[in-house]
Design a protein that fits this description.
It contains 31 helices and 21 strands. By secondary structure, it is of the alpha/beta class.
């Protein structure tokens, strides 16, 4: 974990964590509590019934409470990665982050608990007392050797899964890399020699784990800051190091590495030289995992030994050893069979599952997530990518199966059904923006940000460059922009700044604007004056081809903000109706809401065109559109003119695009319910699947809808995205965060790419 204090990303992170609600976690009810009846069920008197049921059968706690999907992330802050012993409270942001990863990757609820003590026995006692509450315990960032003792005791004395991720996570992921290296090189696991530099929690746990995988203990040599851990050494030793004291004459890391097949670095930066690497055996595996800088850089290791297979802890090089490939899925499998512990069999199963997955064909969605076109099993791809959604479906069932086979599972489950449930648990909404970003990175375009002096717009431009999705242009006074950037401690490398008032393009742009609007009351003098408005200047830039798309801020009202792109860029050929669309991302699905910003009154023609335009937008996100045309009635249940209008709109849309999956009129409750669409309304053209595009009959209904989803459904929003324009133009709302602006820029780039390809 690199120290970022005072840097641009550090300041952005502070803002991210401070944003209300503070931190990264909150508690969300899973049952309704809006009526007196709900209250009587949730609390008194009804809650007495599950209490008595659990009293009669303690295992029913998994049936009637959240225990079975609840993990405690526990630390005392004595070994926070990259930061050291910073204390319990200072470690809390890391623990919240760990809990966030549990939720993001495996849909596990977590509560972080920071214990203000360095007394190992007190920690043990505190954790044991929490057993009735949690389904599992994840120990984190507790210094060695205390962490060994704590985990050892808790595993023996508790009846729920306990794992110190700093130990076993790295061991399991690196173990998968070892297995696949042996597969690639054809080396015998019984004959390879391993050197581990570092004797902390992760290093010693890795040594033990490699023995479980089949490497003889005698073939593993451990080094620490004082050199080789050898038999008879007395300085800096403890009982955990003694387990791996080698019978050897080697005393230094350099001596140990001669002829070694595998190097495992869990120590400090730059402690391995090119000469050391050259002394290793043929086709060596070099896992230099020190953070933020490895024991030897990827490039240096490869240069010294072209035959080497190299892994690091970094995401910017191949073969990243990242613990997120382990702990969410291991706990997922353990919780779902109500395992009493996480045993060696389960850890080995996790490593083999990861190794096996890496040997499979890599799907397109993973390639898109990383902005690459090709990835296949081999020296540069030993272990799955952290963002590969398949890891959940491979690793968790393998862990669950091992728990059942080894006898630590309380329940037996059908693994095929289990895999299906896992796939449904997370859904695919998390991949939506990632698809767009990957497309954008493939061919970045020039995107002009109209309000370039705003702090968040400047930050967004910096991040856009870092993400590699676009070439941003900020409109504003150059001195003020640079001063603000300096104050924000960010660089503007790769960012262009254009001051409309001082631009050489002012006169030709004024003439272009005059030509466009001269028959609508525009004068040349008026055009010059209007171009001082950054929205109009940006729109003319795009119209002239000097930018590929634009973002405009709604500091004024929507109508004022929309006028420049509508008047200057104009509608696409053949399009009569432009519209505003929000992507509303809920837990299990992304849904497009239209029209949310442009058309106050709808008629059948407008509604049909908005549906077709929104369907085209969805395809840019690699989403197959399923369109529901909304009303207050279902499929002819009302003869009201408003319902008739929606039915006519459906007919028009079908004539224009016969292949489009679209139906209506229907209520939102029907459009979003798979149960109703498979049952009472099985005749609906949506084919039993909920709609992912909702077309509203009026702007007020759409606006109310997406705001309710945002506030009550905790949905994330991207937008408004304008559809129907000749070139990309989108709106930044008041109060939008940096990420919102970056998201819209990526969408604009993808649209521009599509236009360029025509």
């Amino acid at each position: 974990m690199p120290v970022t204090h005072g840097s641009a990303i550090g300041r952005e992170s502070l803002e991210y964590h401070e944003r209300l609600p503070h931190g990264k976690l909150q508690i969300v009810p899973t049952k309704p509590c809006s009526t007196q009846r709900d209250l009587s069920l949730a609390y008194t008197p009804g809650v007495a019934e599950p209490c008595l049921a659990i009293h009669d059968n303690p295992d029913d706690v998994y049936r009637y409470t959240a225990k079975g999907n609840l993990v405690a992330v526990i630390t005392n802050g004595t070994a926070v990665l990259g930061l050291g012993n910073i204390g319990a409270a200072a470690g809390k942001p890391v623990m919240e982050g760990k809990a966030l990863l549990f939720k993001r990757f495996a849909d596990i609820d977590s509560i972080d608990i920071e214990l203000a003590t360095e007394d190992a026995d007190k920690i043990i006692e505190a954790v044991k007392l929490m057993e009735p509450t949690f389904g599992g315990i994840n120990l984190e960032d507790i210094k060695a050797p205390e962490c060994f003792y704590i985990e050892e005791r808790l595993r023996q004395e508790m009846n729920i899964p306990v794992m110190h991720d700093d130990q076993h996570g790295t061991a399991i992921i690196s173990g998968a890399a070892v297995l696949n290296t042996l597969e690639i090189t054809g080396k015998d696991i019984k004959k390879v020699r391993v050197v581990i530099n570092g004797a902390g929690a992760a290093a010693l746990a890795s040594a033990r784990f490699y023995v479980l995988l089949g490497i003889p203990r005698a073939n593993i040599m451990v080094c620490d800051s004082k050199g080789v851990v050898f038999q008879g050494r007395t300085v800096g030793m403890n009982r955990y190091k003694e387990e791996f004291a080698s019978d050897t004459k080697a005393r230094t890391l350099e001596e140990a590495l001669v002829g070694a097949d595998i190097f495992v670095g869990l120590s400090i930066a730059n402690c391995v030289t090119a000469d050391m690497v050259r002394s290793m055996a043929k086709d060596p595996l070099i896992m230099a995992m020190a953070n933020p800088d490895p024991e030897i850089s990827y490039d240096e290791a490869r240069a010294a030994r072209p035959d080497a297979i190299v892994a690091t802890g970094r995401s910017d090089f191949p073969n990243q050893v990242n613990n997120v490939l382990g702990f969410p899925y291991i706990f997922r499998g353990a919780l779902d069979v109500r395992a009493r512990q996480i045993n060696e069999e389960m850890k080995v199963a996790a490593a083999h599952a990861l190794a096996d997955l890496a040997r499979q064909d890599v799907p397109e969605e993973v390639l898109k997530a990383y902005g690459i076109t090709e990835l296949s099993f081999g020296r540069h791809y030993l272990i799955p990518k952290p963002l590969d959604p398949r890891v959940l479906m491979w690793e968790a069932p393998a862990v669950a199966a091992a728990a059942m086979k080894s006898g630590v599972a309380r329940v037996q489950i059908d693994l095929d059904e289990y895999r299906e449930s896992l796939e449904a648990r997370l859904g695919q909404s998390r991949e939506v923006m990632r698809v767009v970003f990957s497309k954008a990175r493939s061919s970045p375009k020039r995107i002009v940000l109209a309000q370039g002096e705003h702090d968040n717009v400047i930050r967004a431009a910096h991040q856009i460059v870092e993400e590699g999705i676009a070439r941003p242009v900020l409109l504003g006074n150059a001195d003020r922009v640079r001063t603000k950037a300096e104050h924000l401690r960010i660089t503007l490398d790769g960012v262009s700044i254009v001051d409309p008032a001082a631009s050489d393009c002012m006169e030709p742009y004024a003439r272009m604007l005059f030509d466009l609007r001269r028959r609508k009351g525009m004068t040349l003098v008026g055009a010059r004056q209007l171009l001082l408005d950054p929205g109009y200047y940006a729109a003319v830039m795009v119209n002239a081809g000097d930018a590929d798309g634009m973002l405009i801020s709604a500091d004024l009202d929507y109508l004022d903000a929309m006028r420049p792109p509508l008047r200057v860029i104009g509608r696409a050929p053949g399009v009569k109706t432009a519209a505003g669309v929000y992507l509303v991302t809920l837990k299990n699905r992304p849904i497009f809401f239209a029209d949310a910003t442009v058309n106050i009154d709808m008629d059948a023609e407008k509604m049909a065109e908005v549906a077709l335009l929104t369907a085209d937008l969805a395809r840019k996100f690699d989403i197959v559109p399923r369109v529901a045309m909304l009303s207050f009635s279902n499929f002819g249940s009302s003869r009201h003119p408003r319902s008739e209008m929606v039915r006519e709109a459906v007919a028009i849309a079908r004539r224009r695009d016969p292949k489009l999956i679209i139906d209506g009129e229907m209520m939102a409750s029907v459009a979003l319910s798979a149960e109703l669409l498979k049952g009472e309304y099985a005749f609906c053209e949506l084919g039993g699947k909920p709609a992912n595009i909702l077309i509203f009959p009026s702007i007020e209904s759409s606006h109310i809808g997406y705001r309710l989803a945002q506030e009550l459904g905790q949905a994330d929003l991207v937008g408004p995205m304008f559809v129907g324009l000749r070139k990309p133009a989108h709106m930044v709302n008041r109060g939008d965060h940096v990420r919102d602006i970056v998201n819209l820029a990526a969408v604009a780039v993808v649209e521009a790419q599509e236009l360029a390809a025509r």
